[in-house]
Amino acid sequence: QVQLVESGGGLVQAGGSLRLSCAASGSIFTIVSMGWYRQTPGKQRELVASITRGGSTNYADSVKGRFTISRDNAKNTMYLQMNSLKPEDTAVYYCNIFPAWDRYWGQGTQVTVSS
Question: For the segment 14-56, what is each residue's pLDDT rounded down to a tens digit?
């Protein structure tokens, strides 16, 4: 059984940085692509960034040049380094495999960016 646990969220001022972590249990982590997603109230969850098991990455246009996704397969952990944060980045951030499976959504971690 796979469990994904997000951490690292918090309150930060605009222009600041945060680093999110996603710890995965189970053997699936090393053989699949992973993604970071985010959701704000009243909106659909959106893909922020994805990374293949080999490390190839892809980003939403809104975060290109500011966010960096990475993974450590030895530690079964994925990261999202978020720099130059904007108020519009405020959301609950989730990790999941890519494409996402409903069974793997966790609680997420709240990121709040104040102006």
Answer: 999 999 999 998 777 777 899 999 999 999 999 999 999 999 9
What are the distances in angstroms from CA 2 to CA 26, 42, 76, 83, 113? 5, 28, 11, 29, 30
Q: Are 56 and 70 in contact (CB under 8 A)?
A: no
pLDDT digit string, tens, across residues 76-90: 999 999 999 999 999
Which of 82, 86, 76 is CA-nearest to residue 40?
86
Q: Show the 3-state SS of 61-108.
A: CCCCCCEEEEEEHHHCEEEEEECCCCHHHCEEEEEEECCCCHHHCCCC
In the numeric block, which tokens belong to residue 92?
Answer: 């609950």
